[in-house]
Amino acid sequence: MTDGAAGTKAFAPEYQGALGALSVNASLPEVLASGLREREAARAAGDAGEAARCGLAVAEAYRRLGRAEEADQAWKESFRAARSADRPDAMAWALWSGGTLARQRGAFRLAYRLLRLAAEWGERGGDVVVRGYSLAGLAETGRIQGDYEAVALLHEQLLAEARRRGEARHTVWALEGIAQIHRNTGSYDKALALFEEAADTALRAEDRRGWAWALRGVADVVSVRDGDTERALALLARAEDACREIGLTSALAYNHKMRGNVLYRAGRHQEARELYEQALEEFTGMDEARGTALARLGLAKARARLGRDPRETAGELVEIRALLERIGLRQARQMAAAAADELGVGPLPDPRRAAAAAPSPAEELRSADPEALR
Q: Where are the transmembrane segments (predicted)?
């Protein structure tokens, strides 16, 4: 399959102003150091617009390095600087960064609001790229929550737009999102083809980040569909090298969790337990709620296979189910029930749902709240 992005190189539009020449594969610690330096220079010169642009790179570097509190402060500072400079496009980019961080931390309602505002301000500012990134963020938020019907068409539309505009990085993102939907609904052949296309597109575009995520998807499918443990582990090892090269803390943690999944499926439960423990520590350290819950689920299953008391396993599965529901994953009950059945500790007790449940993805994608940030 060919696409309009096949011959283009990936670029990082979130690196702007004095940082605009940075590669998409630039080491995140180096991006952070440069961003902080240039942001301070812009502030000293009284250039709020430049401070906003450099502050965006700071926020994104902090986020991808797993430093959530610093990322939160940085995107808000970028937004305030953009607002003072009357730059709606820069405001949109700051809101996109904040919405992406909110999703990473499991705050889906806030993510929807910020990403929706980012798309609106991007349109007002005439920046089609940030508008596309923001719509993609909304689609990804809904996909992570498990509402595939609500976001599948948006993923396809964004893929077509990315190909038309020749944006390799966004083509890779959209391919991976659609592949993940197919994987999660059991269409493994389609998922594998799309993940492999994403990996090939990313490789030709010199997008190490997208390539690492795509390899993780390929490894997952060849493990679950083919039982090919060694190939899956080899792919994950290659992806890990790319994550370490750039400094992708969150992607590295998800890589470790996936390695745990592969080992668990192969019956190598002690090794899986060690990987889940490592991933859990990494996710907890970066305040990534969804990753934390999924690593706990894998760890609970591995411990059960290693002889843990069934009552303790059932109790932890109830806790994990509640955590996943608070985050807003629609498949939380199904995941917990499937784990309980697999481990022979079900059925789980079914207490009343928490009153402060997260929003329905379809409802959030249909609604609008432009006053949310005021």
A: none
Domain that holds residue 341: 248-359
Give the angle subtended at the CA of 142 by the CAs of 140 and 147, to the nearest 5°.
130
CATH number, domain with residue 351? 1.25.40.10
How far lies 119's CA from each of 95, 132, 368, in Å? 9, 7, 11
Give the pLDDT confidence of 210-263 residue by residue, as tens digits.
999 999 999 999 999 999 999 999 999 999 999 999 999 999 999 999 999 999
Rounded CA-CA distance 293/281 in Å is 11
In the predicted model, what is the mean pLDDT of residues 135-162?
Answer: 92
Structural domain contains residue 318: yes
0.70 exceeded by pTM: yes
Residue 208 lies in a domain: no
For residue 343, is it within any domain? yes
Half-sphere exposure of 155 (CA within 13 A, CB side): 24
Tally Cβ neighbours within 10 Å of residue 230: 11
Q: Which residues contact 53 (CB under 8 A, 6 or more apart)?
A: 16, 17, 18, 19, 42, 78, 90, 93
pLDDT, tens digit, 9 for 90 and up, residues 316-354: 999 999 999 998 898 888 999 999 999 999 899 876 554
State the number of CA atoms in the 13 A half-sphere of 260 facing the CB. Answer: 27
Total structural domains within the chain: 1
Mean pLDDT of the chain: 91
Smallest Cα–Cα separation from 158: which of 119, 203, 124, 109?
119
Strands (E), the chain: none
Q: Is residue 280 part of a domain?
A: yes
Flag whether pLDDT at 3 surpasses 80: no
Q: Which two tokens stand for residue 321?
A: 């189910």
